[in-house]
């Protein structure tokens, strides 16, 4: 005797959050049954593994049918096929679009193309995230990317409206889209210590300060939040004067040193390294017009600034102090005319470096 | 030209991509009613077209309005080739024809295609302008209200109950017409859907006509069924109870929805209407068949009945009521279950306009039922229902009901014949008192004085097909009791097969009855309500499934225990075996008493004194009732077969004991019953959840014995229940109400298809479609803190499962953040006739829908389970959409009448037919302070603190 067909349909869709997570994590039905058994779900119920299997199958089928709707979450709210209470819908969407930070770290900054998708089995092997789950997450990234690519208006808001995600998750997706669009290098060994949240924070800074949308004018072009503002990048070249003009460089150095003296243990190293560090930061700024160099933005920050400071054993406090005075002192330089660009540049650099300066 | 139907196509959304090149669709809509068709403009290149069409107007007869559905077809415009159909929506406009129901149909409907399922949605507006038609000879019956609910609908008052109405229409099944060979499956499915829609419209209209002639204005307990007889045709039949209903004025205190027993409504005899009714009966359906059945009586006969006092039961009209729940005081006495079955050979329906054969068959059965009722000293049958099971050309017709005496005040005069209505008998036990003559009993039964009033005689057990009367006094809680039975049968054809089946039937009924009785005793209960016995025929087996809700009626004597006796008492080990069995049974009884909280106050001494009094001893086997090869009948209702003593020598008895003891107990926190309300539980929450479960099993071994099959069948049912308990564990404490099992042994075609699979030589399938409502019971706050916390957890869980108020407020809130229009209305579905803790303010009309779904890519759709799962979900969605479009927020008395599933995995194909029905309503929530729904409150007469345990 065997079960040929076994379905259970409810008017108001019942979903077990635990099973949903197992499904999202790419467990097969049999594996999910095993996990649930070990989790002790049968305790206290007079049920057999058979019952558990049938229940898991039912739920998996429901999720599979819902998946199509989850691809455009707005539809989930006004579709008629499943009667799902709104708070459940929110849960379904939020969990479906959630991702593993180990996974996202692997594909961050990569082109969301078929080629990358083909390599997902390597990513799966490396991260321990099942291939099925990797594919879902990758497809989510790609789907969000494709939708917002063609939309005007602020990136985070677009994502939140079209995918009904929470603010936090929408910001994370904005970061992913931003990284994928600008193809920032994040995979180098030197960057391995950085978490997704570090990058997401930096992306947020870049989006809100360096893009066209940052100016608050949303009627102009598409992609305003996704691309860095060309004019601003051109202007950054002007900052080179800070390192090419010897007087200006010395003046800047003395101003910073005066301010820092006695306030930190690392003062000597700061004084000794000032010119190198300053050159590093300003060179990064000057190179950003070149798309290729943009990709190396983070690796440059680490190599040119963070690593030297780390080897000199600056504390996070030292870093904050240094960057504050380094930024502010430039205002006092009377021959330096690019205050606005400088602030726009340094504001982001400062917060990025502070976020990235950890072990 | 008595009516103008107007339709407007507003918009579409989520349409499928029909043009691969552009990933878009050029959609337009055809609106068809009768033979008139209108078209909208093509809305190019959009998946969310905004047609905003003009009002399409159809000027039609109201006869057509009742019969025809409005047919809306969405198509994709193609310049070079034929336009592709996206899908269809059929809208039944019947609800718009009654002034008290809906006034407009407006909303989003799923666009349904029989091959692809739901493909987007369409927003439609429909209105009807009716002109008064004073033509006396009209064929339409607009305005007659239909209710699936088997009680007087909540916002109405029964002014008069007229009685039984029935009708059937037959036609050829399009699936079996020659044209089916050349048309596409889609065309064939659509033809079938349309035909059935037309036939049910026609049926409803004809029944409505009968009601009007009887002077009524509504049909309550409307039960419509399809018999897919295959080659021989398609039968749509319906029964119901004609009533005159008065609408209760909203605003006045409606808590007491039913007329209170103190002031019964003014029931006036409906003079000449009855004459017309009987004549209409003969005119419309029981057309000439002289010689076969008793000749149709002339109108004068009924008239005589009304005038002269010694009336007989030979009324042409059947004193049957499809109601299962009655106003207080309506039921005077209950005799017991009456049922009749008849095995027929199907024959092609030659002339659809004269369905006399089928009519004659039912007529025969109804006569049978009537005479059974008469034998029980009753003049009426309540809780009446009819069903069929078909296997190839053999068809079993069944009818069952509960013989009863009704209160003359509630009835038309001609009916209250043997009224011995005793005003003195209290309502809580009166219905238990025997209606028949004590010294001239139709069968041997044990009578005792009523344990409640001590004045009248009561039987020792009572079986009924109705719901537990609200005023009945019960002890403890009730529970679901099932008897399951399988019998093998030789493969045969035609008449031989029919004879074999009819020979088996009485034995099956007898055994099911014995099982029920034993299980009832084992649970220490003495009455069954909502008894439903289903017998299904397969090619080489018969299946019997009886479900009922057991209860301990305080008025009836306590049931004795079950004693096992051995025939050969010489063997010592054998005796030991018997005594261990006996002990197990006694333990189970004691446990069940605890579980169901049954502590009968007095009368214990009687049981303790001699657990099995001599007078109750009876051998298990006895001769079965007579049975002819065509008609078999049994009265099993009345405690004559109280199998208190099981003789273990009997192999059947061993089997019985096995099945008795293998019934798994319900997990803590669960209750189940197949009636509307759970006896002994009064504190319901408003949270409810309706579900349908379908299972198909395949038997691997064709050469199974009866015992083997029985065991398998029992295990299947038990497993299904266990599975339900597991799935619903988060809702504890909860009660599965209206558990409704259906079994089927699908036909040969299927099995033949399966024969290609090498592993299984001759498999058999079972199907179990069930509709169940789960309602959550809220625990009363306990005294100590621990319990308090416990119940607080529970109430939060019930909120999770039943978030109606939350849903609504939340959905309103979320609309603001959502960019996309209004959210979907939440529509509750329930097989109950009410929603706990809510008040139904308006009935919007009957929902009666029939769908076919077919696939030629079964594997791609997730196999049979995936296919059926999505189909059932789609059916739910379409029901909800129709209710919402009528302006409703719930379907009550919902049931899935038919679920026929066929597959051919080798061709990667499957087909499924589903018929659902129910009443669309608007309900409002009672404020939470009014804790208990009115109907249930009045039932708490003698039970004190029966609830609140666990």
Automatic annotation (TrEMBL), chain A:
<dbReference type="GO" id="GO:0017134">
    <property type="term" value="F:fibroblast growth factor binding"/>
</dbReference>
<dbReference type="GO" id="GO:0005634">
    <property type="term" value="C:nucleus"/>
</dbReference>
<protein>
    <submittedName>
        <fullName>Fibroblast growth factor (acidic) intracellular binding protein a</fullName>
    </submittedName>
</protein>
<dbReference type="GO" id="GO:0070527">
    <property type="term" value="P:platelet aggregation"/>
</dbReference>
<dbReference type="Pfam" id="PF05427">
    <property type="entry name" value="FIBP"/>
</dbReference>
<dbReference type="InterPro" id="IPR008614">
    <property type="entry name" value="FIBP"/>
</dbReference>
Automatic annotation (TrEMBL), chain B:
<keyword id="KW-0813">Transport</keyword>
<dbReference type="GO" id="GO:0005938">
    <property type="term" value="C:cell cortex"/>
</dbReference>
<keyword id="KW-0968">Cytoplasmic vesicle</keyword>
<dbReference type="InterPro" id="IPR037785">
    <property type="entry name" value="C2_C2CD5"/>
</dbReference>
<dbReference type="Pfam" id="PF00168">
    <property type="entry name" value="C2"/>
</dbReference>
<dbReference type="Pfam" id="PF23025">
    <property type="entry name" value="YbjQ_2"/>
</dbReference>
<dbReference type="GO" id="GO:0030659">
    <property type="term" value="C:cytoplasmic vesicle membrane"/>
</dbReference>
<dbReference type="InterPro" id="IPR038983">
    <property type="entry name" value="C2CD5"/>
</dbReference>
<keyword id="KW-0479">Metal-binding</keyword>
<dbReference type="InterPro" id="IPR056431">
    <property type="entry name" value="C2CD5_YbjQ-rel_dom"/>
</dbReference>
<dbReference type="GO" id="GO:0065002">
    <property type="term" value="P:intracellular protein transmembrane transport"/>
</dbReference>
<feature type="domain" description="C2">
    <location>
        <begin position="1"/>
        <end position="109"/>
    </location>
</feature>
<dbReference type="GO" id="GO:0008286">
    <property type="term" value="P:insulin receptor signaling pathway"/>
</dbReference>
<keyword id="KW-1003">Cell membrane</keyword>
<dbReference type="GO" id="GO:0001726">
    <property type="term" value="C:ruffle"/>
</dbReference>
<dbReference type="Pfam" id="PF23128">
    <property type="entry name" value="YbjQ_4"/>
</dbReference>
<keyword id="KW-0653">Protein transport</keyword>
<keyword id="KW-0106">Calcium</keyword>
<dbReference type="InterPro" id="IPR035892">
    <property type="entry name" value="C2_domain_sf"/>
</dbReference>
<feature type="compositionally biased region" description="Low complexity">
    <location>
        <begin position="277"/>
        <end position="287"/>
    </location>
</feature>
<dbReference type="GO" id="GO:0090314">
    <property type="term" value="P:positive regulation of protein targeting to membrane"/>
</dbReference>
<keyword id="KW-0446">Lipid-binding</keyword>
